[in-house]
Specification:
There is one protein chain. It contains seven helices and 15 strands. The two termini are 14 Å apart. By secondary structure, it is α/β, with parallel strands linked by helices. A hairpin with a 2-residue loop joins strand 10 and strand 11. It has two domains: 144 residues, FAD/NAD(P)-binding domain; 93 residues, Orthogonal Bundle (Arc Repressor Mutant), CATH 1.10.1220. The protein has a four-stranded mixed sheet. Strands 2-3-12 form a three-stranded parallel sheet, covered by helices on one side.
Length: 246
């Protein structure tokens, strides 16, 4: 590990893992990833059914209480959970792979988010996918993120699907395929019975390139400026390590 880096990525959540992967594709740069949580070594992270325990564990998830009750006069008992550790929320979520509606992306672009329209985002999605159903007009293969179909069927869920059919909705094996209207079982970020988190799909392969360092249990307190330029971040760790950009 060095003291100077070209890029410092704060947070190894879903976006941080992808960003580290993309930046480190240039062999001439060094990337540091700082994560307030720990490493994703717990078997509960990688075992899909582990979500029932890990999502309530403060070691692996931040718990944010909601002060406003859902209904007036009721107690405020809700809490929003976000992942803590490599992979962020992708290491503690329900592993459901569902895209936003294409019209939402079109609306973002109409409102000024250039480059976020559906034509662009569709290609991005397809580029990261390794889809179990194979290549299609709306699916990609060969990407780092494995997408699998649901393997289990449940009587109540089957009844819901049948109710949708009776309402005139088509049954779909791939809910993300266009047109998106339809009913069926979710797709999942699971491969061979193991969770496919952003850390698994993007960060760990990036680290193998040799130009990415990851520091865990490092909570970032503030940015360090030199004029208008951020030259580093101040972190809270027992060893007092302070990385700097170069």
């Amino acid at each position: 590990m060095t003291d100077q880096y070209d890029y410092i990525v704060v947070g190894a959540g879903s976006s941080g893992c992808v960003l580290a992967d993309r930046l480190s594709m240039d062999p001439d740069v060094r990337v540091l990833v700082l994560e307030a949580g720990g490493r994703d070594t717990s078997y509960l992270i990688h075992m899909p059914k582990g979500i029932g325990r890990i999502i309530l564990d403060p070691k692996h998830a931040w718990q944010y209480p909601v002060q406003q009750p859902r209904e007036p006069g009721m107690p405020a008992t809700e809490a929003w959970v976000r992942g803590r550790g490599l992979g962020g929320s992708s290491s503690v979520n329900g592993m459901i792979y569902i895209r936003g509606h294409h019209e939402d992306y079109a609306e973002w672009e109409r409102r000024g988010a250039t480059g976020w329209g559906w034509d662009v985002m569709k290609n991005v999605f397809m580029g990261i996918e390794d889809h179990e159903l194979g290549t299609g007009d709306d699916r990609g293969t060969g990407g780092p993120l494995h997408i699998s179909t649901g393997k289990f069927r449940y009587p109540l869920a089957d009844a819901c699907v049948q109710a949708g059919v009776e309402m005139g909705l088509p049954v779909k094996q791939d809910l993300n395929a266009m047109p998106q209207e339809g009913v069926g079982y979710y797709l999942h970020n699971i491969k061979d019975g193991r969770r496919q988190s952003a850390a698994k799909a993007f960060l760990h392969p990036a680290v193998k390139r040799g130009n990415v360092d990851v520091v865990t249990d490092a909570e970032v307190e503030k940015l360090v400026f030199e004029g208008n330029r951020v030259i580093g971040v101040r972190t809270r760790r027992q060893d007092g390590y302070l990385p700097r950009a170069r």
